[in-house]
Amino acid sequence: xxxxxxxxxxxxxxxxxxxxxxxxxxxxxxxxxxxxxxxxxxxxxxxxxxxxxxxxxxxxxxxxxxxxxxxxxxxxxxxxxxxxxxxxxxxxxxxxxxxxxxxxxxxxxxxxxxxxxxxxxxxxxxxxxxxxxxxxxxxxxxxxxxxxxxxxxxxxxxxxxxxxxxxxxxxxxxxxxxxxxxxxxxxxxxxxxxxxxxxxxxxxxxxxxxxxxxxxxxxxxxxxxxxxxxxxxxxxxxxxxxxxxxxxxxxxxxxxxxxxxxxxxxxxxxxxxxxxxxxxxxxxxxxxxxxxxxxxxxxxxxxxxxxxxxxxxxxxxxxxxxxxxxxxxxxxxxxxxxxxxxxxxxxxxxxxxxxxxxxxxxxxxxxx
Length: 368
Fold this sequence. Notes:
The record marks 126, 344 as: Interaction with tRNA. It is a single chain. With 368 residues, this protein is of the alpha+beta class. It folds into 3 domains: 2-190, HUPs (Rossmann fold, 3-Layer(aba) Sandwich); 220-277, Adenine nucleotide alpha hydrolases-like domains (SH3 type barrels), CATH 2.30.30; 281-365, Translation factors (Elongation Factor Tu (Ef-tu), domain 3, Beta Barrel), CATH 2.40.30. The chain has 7 helices and 18 strands. It has a 6-stranded antiparallel β-barrel with strand order 12-16-15-14-17-18. Strands 3-2-1-4-7 form a 5-stranded parallel sheet, sandwiched between helices. Strands 9-8-11-10 form a 4-stranded mixed sheet, with no helix packed on it. The longest helix is centred in the N-terminal third of the chain and has 20 residues, at 97-116. It is globular, with a radius of gyration of 22 Å. It starts with a strand and ends with a strand.
């Protein structure tokens, strides 16, 4: 097959490209330029978006012996990922930009262009596995290394995208990948993984959002209030500095009567009110999901002992019943979850298989 290997400049994508070439595919490497001014995004060689990363990817392609190009997708990335991130936070929601990047950039813009150029598939360094199902469809499953499993951020991919995707690292753990990179002479073998949001240069999400949102009406200060009493406990500089479940950085002078820490329970961006309370008030057992995306056949109901929902990258799995509706999905959590915010993604599993995903629109607290 003709394969386009997306090379971020990190060790995972370099080994994935090398494996694809070694498997006999006709591989071409590409690096995505996601900012016209890379210095405005994260600085330092961290595995995404910087000039150093582009150079690392090029050197890896040279070692592997494959052609290499840089594709400028900065305008598309800013419109579909960065702007979406700002809009969601301004509305009091907590988005996951990595899912949006996979959906809109890596497996939409890149894959569409690749197919248009005559490539058969796009290979990435994501940790997930693809298998042929009994119904002839392509199934996506968790990686062998559950600690590195990235199927959660790939839960937005549909069947047409999975049919043209390769994940060469799904059967390997990270230690083995680094050892393989060193054995292949890839200089990125010991390069640190990236963890922060790539377009927030210093990792200060709240500060970045305040600067970028500027004078947007929902980016004003407001009160921090107690959930039980309605007492105003303090003020803040903008709701974008908070997310549901947050404990640190509240700067509340008045301690709780029981001496226990308070957590953010609710964010109201129009009034600027941030409501805080005890951890037990964070427990939710009902979720409403919108904009569902299915990896294969659309189910009517997902239920059974192996059906789970994951609500954060590398988060816990929660046993659940998922009912598909015309306007989205209703999710009943048999194992309540804590600190779940609108805007996060709910990814549905049947055992290790990814069934689909949805964006959380609303949550309902456990009645106590």
